Amino acid sequence: MKYARPLGALGAAVVMAMGLSACASGSAAGGDPGTGGKVIIGIKFDQPGLGLKNGDAYEGFDVEVAKYVAKELGYTDVEFTETPSAQRETMLQSDQVKMIFATYSITDDRKQKVAFAGPYFIAGQDLLVAEANTDITGPESLNGKKLCSVVGSTSAKKIQDQFANQVQLQEYDTYSKCVEALASGSIDAVTTDNVILAGFAAQSQYAGKLKVVGKPFSTERYGVGIKQGDTKLCTAVNTALEKMVSDGSWQKALDATVGPSGFTPDASTNPPKPDACA
Fold this sequence. Notes:
Order of helices and strands: HEEEEHEHEHEEEHEHEHEEHH
Number of domains: 2
């Protein structure tokens, strides 16, 4: 019994030291801006031109923006991990990732759970259909049609609520599965942002087989997802994004990644100016 108190004190000291160390270095996904070291960033793995895992490499506009921002924030080791649409908020809240660059539209609903820096790109929701399709000319022509999107996406819900309440919705965990279903003829259309759809349509296996309808029905402001309350990180990310635009790196990255698909972003909204951090 005489050793109980010293051991307990030692244990408490160790726990306190660990706690102080964690506070000093931020979360397990990465420290505060300027502290260096490793950072874990969430991206998509299946979006050509934006966030794509190709073997052991990662490519796309989101990836290039993430690399630029991470370097500006002083991180020396970037680890990318997949963040499916339905899991993004949970992965930020549980410190599995420090930031998310994954065509993550800023919405009021999402702001209830996470915060955003940016936006760094503005797109619009649209439809992908077979090249020979003439029936689907916009979201209002989808009643009775089979529409595919991913779990957690806002695009299909908008169509159901505002344009075609009789649409038949099929949901998968990734857009690539939706596009495969479209190419096989088992569904009639895929909906998400136009820049994403253009990337799929330009892939070699779909070239000449799929097309973007070209009638966007929303404005999607891509933000950098971060944990709620992290104003320091938000401010640092916004500063990095503004520098990326001003030094020409933003346009260079866009041309190299999205450019090959033939998609032309709306120049009246791109590049956007980041919102003020709350």
